[in-house]
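Anyone have tokens for Glutamate or tyrosine decarboxylase? Sequence:
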Amino acid sequence: MTADDFGPVLAKAHAHATAYLTAQPERHVGARCSHAELDGVLRTPLTSRGEDPAAVIDLLAGQAGNAAVACGSPRYFGFVIGGTYPVALAADWLVSSWDQNAGLYAISPLCSVAEDVAGDWLLDLFDLPRESEVGFVTGCQMANFTCLAAARHGVLARVGWDVEADGLCGAPKVNIVTSAESHVTVDVALRYLGFGTRSLLRVESDDQGRMRVDRLQELMQTLEGPTIICAQAGNVNTGAFDPLREIAQLASAHGAWLHVDGAFGLWARASERLAGLADGIELADSWATDAHKWLNVPYDCGVAIVRHAEDHRKAMTSTAAYLIQTRGAERDPVDWVPEFSRRARGVPVYATLRALGRDGVRDLVERCCDRARQMAQALGAHPGIEILNEVVLNQVLVRFGDDDALTRAVIEGVQKDGTCWLSGTTWHGMGAMRISVSNWQTTEADAAASVAAILRVFEEVKRLGEA
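Reply: yep, here.
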């Protein structure tokens, strides 16, 4: 191995990456090429002898400006996608360079200890029980899966059933209680775990998507046996929080396991100003969140947190005679996540938390919420535009002319305009524009420019409709 094997192609990739990142804040935010165009460039018969690596990198990088949506743009408000802090990206490059299988301490002491420390920092930042265990997974889908696997183990073990050994066939029935507006990843996790979705007990939500405690209380009085309650910190449309303290008290009174899906809402705990939204969340048994959302580390990085270490370990761990596994202070990440072979996705979390500190994370979360309110106030002041939700966090729902077709047309027009990119949703039967602010780079000027573009498209769409 020589410098010539890596140096030229890595230097070329670095140059392309720097050019992409430098141009990203000012570029058209959406993609601007068709599937046919992109397929025509990328699809070719696989050659026998291969091609020049530098040429391959040039080919891929050459498509990014038109075919990659600028999700890291300060004016990208689609879904809940964060940008990437420079230190997080640099740490992620190191992870790829080290190429460690981060499943076992014996394979990578560096990655194991870095993830262990990062997990402890997150518990401290969120003020969750310090005895909790933390696993770094691909995203909140697998974080919910991991936490609910621990919940499945825990509630069945309490009634004498070993689900890992004996499966679910013949097991005591587990009651699964969710909000009517729980995120789809909770449903999917429960499917993966063998519960299915038809038997889920849905609790009515209020006009902001919060679980109604009175309805939950009525339901709990009818249930017997092992029970798992799934609550939400940060509704995917409105940003609203379920009344977590009251739900936790009900769960405790009925001996139920409480899991909280806090994909982005858990980060409110990093802010004294916003932490009250998640009051009582520390009373839960497990929590799921994403680092690639509000912490602004590269994809992919989700976080599964479980209060009860043994339930967590027994639900997840893998053992085999040929493995070298620890039983001391060393920590094997494979004990806490579904994946055996995995990249060290906790390392960028470590780097970002260490670089930002508590104040940096707090400022990031609060700035994004401020920009969401700025956009909501400016749009809501315009005739014919309604803000549908209480803007408590970083989510804004916008409706135009009280008309589904008009709203969809404005969303499509804004996406084509390219000043910013945002998505649509259906909220309580109404079409709505959904604005999610979660990028560390988004400034007041970015928010103002995006509002101006939205208003411009709105007026153009109305004018065309009246013509």
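The longest helix spans residues 346-380.
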